[in-house]
Amino acid sequence: MKKIVALLLALMLVCSAAAFAAGTDIAILVPNADHGWTGAVLTYAEEKAEAINAEGKYTAKVISSADPANQISQVEDIIENESAKSIVILPQDNTLETTMKKLADSGIPFVMFDRVIDTVAEQAVASVKGDNEGIGAETAKRFIAAGMVPGDKILIMPGDNSSVPQMRNDGFFGVLLENGWTQEQVDAIESTAYTGWSRSEGKKLFTEWLDSRTVEEIAEYKWIFTHDDEIGMGILEALKSSEIDTAKKEAFLAAGVHLASSSGLNEMYSVIKGIHQKDYAAEVAGLADLFTVTYDPAMIQIACDDMITYLDGGEVTKDHVIPVDVVDATNVNDFRGFGDAVAAE
């Protein structure tokens, strides 16, 4: 009789575990499509949720947010109502820190993607991100290989106040310090205000920067490190427009500027290939170098896979960093960009 009871209890436990697994919800929280990269993240997240739901073992739902306050409300609603058993989240920005602490304390397992809230990183199942420091490091290495020396004028156009721009700058500055730059020289590097990863804001800030400089000063800047392809496109659009003083535009294009960006926007790849429908050939010809470093939005699917591995009882790398590649005219055809194509091949 005891054996029968034990067998029944074991069977009940197995069935309970199976039911739990089958009903486990994965809430995928991402920002709205406010620019190309996050738009692609949303698309890839929706694709992954569809695939998860089709497999039938787990259910997944993508929840997008308009701003940090909206995302904070979404997370706190999940905590309060236990409406999801796990979360994969791309935090809007660092203002989510308090809410993320609540999430960590709630016991709901979570994976952070892209933007990492450092104070809860140890409690996360995993932090999945591209090699942000690698983006900065590879940019600095390419600049140095092209002749940049300690004390040269550099302009940085950062994304926002999250961990991402900080890590990109840390990688950039670290390579400079390893190659003869002093801390004082690094501290003197110029930076614009945050672009918010926005093309229009990047265009505006770049135009304002040119307006605030003399022709002679503009000619001293040969190295521009933007944190995103949208920002880089903003610079190109500004150069193509009639909004910039002609003498200053000519001074900029004659300076031999090395323009760096990152992410993998299809439009930037089209510019590098020389097939963009707006024809940026003249602007690119005026640059000494144009390149971008990969930061694939499809990594959100890897973040979801890490959560599934965890739910399945597997081992997950807590600090999951995806390597980067430098993309230029010599290898651009080897890479798949994201976003709408802007010209036929």
Which key terms come to mind for this protein?
12 strands; six-stranded mixed sheet; 17% strand; disordered N terminus; alpha/beta; 345 residues
Describe the structure.
By secondary structure, this protein is an alpha/beta fold. 48% of the residues lie in helices and 17% in strands. It contains 14 helices and twelve strands. It has helices at 2-23, 36-55, 68-81, 97-106, 132-145, 163-178, 183-187, 199-211, 215-218, 229-240, 246-254, 266-273, 281-285, 299-311; strands spanning 25-31, 59-65, 86-89, 110-113, 126-130, 153-157, 190-191, 221-226, 258-263, 289-294, 319-322, 326-327. It has a six-stranded parallel β-sheet. Helix 3 (68-81) packs parallel to helix 4 (97-106). The longest helix has 22 residues, at 2-23. It is elongated, with a radius of gyration of 23 Å. The relative contact order is 0.14.
